[in-house]
């Protein structure tokens, strides 16, 4: 499997699913979005904020990488660095939704610029506790997309419990059927 086209698919899936999730969030009241539901980050709103926090942290790390594709992340560098994984970067759905749409466009542009050389390098970074690490860049990008999918899975359950169906969530919906090509 070629990694760059796979990451492009994941970036498109990320954008598609975030659109569905935020459309579903728009059907709930602020109180329903903020209701403690026993999830890792408490509420639907807390979980959506967490995904933005984690994406921001990872994109800032990726922007510091010497890979050629990192230049497409220059717009991320000046964003405030979240200090906690449960930090609320936005306190209203519309602000969070607009930022999410912007982030998804940044992610698509960044992934579109990835090269095989970029993907075969390593990235040195410090985690949120300050522990140094050095890992394969492509593996970290896979983690980046997997983390989003993990928490959107939680959010889809929280929406279901709140009586909101977000519809089809399978990646398969975005994979072209070779028989129809």
From TrEMBL:
A divalent metal cation binds at residues 50, 147, 151. Keywords: Metal-binding. GO terms for molecular function: metal ion binding. Belongs to the DinB family. This is Damage-inducible protein DinB. It comes from Vreelandella titanicae.
């Amino acid at each position: 499997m070629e990694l760059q086209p796979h990451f492009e698919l994941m970036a498109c899936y990320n954008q598609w699913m975030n659109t569905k999730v935020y459309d579903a969030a728009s059907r709930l009241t602020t109180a329903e979005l903020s209701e403690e539901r026993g999830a890792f980050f408490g509420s639907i709103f807390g979980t959506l904020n967490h995904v933005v926090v984690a994406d921001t942290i990872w994109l800032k790390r990726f922007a510091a990488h010497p890979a050629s594709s990192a230049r497409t992340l220059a717009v991320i560098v000046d964003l405030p660095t979240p200090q906690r994984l449960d930090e609320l970067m936005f306190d209203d759905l519309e602000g969070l939704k607009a930022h999410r749409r912007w982030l998804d466009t940044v992610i698509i542009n960044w992934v579109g610029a990835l090269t095989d050389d970029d993907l075969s390098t390593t990235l040195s970074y410090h985690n949120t506790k300050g522990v140094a690490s050095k890992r394969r860049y492509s593996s970290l990008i896979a983690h980046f997309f997997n983390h989003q999918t993990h928490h959107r899975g939680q959010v889809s359950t929280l929406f279901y419990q709140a009586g909101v169906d977000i519809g089809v969530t399978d990646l398969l919906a975005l994979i072209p059927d070779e028989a129809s090509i």
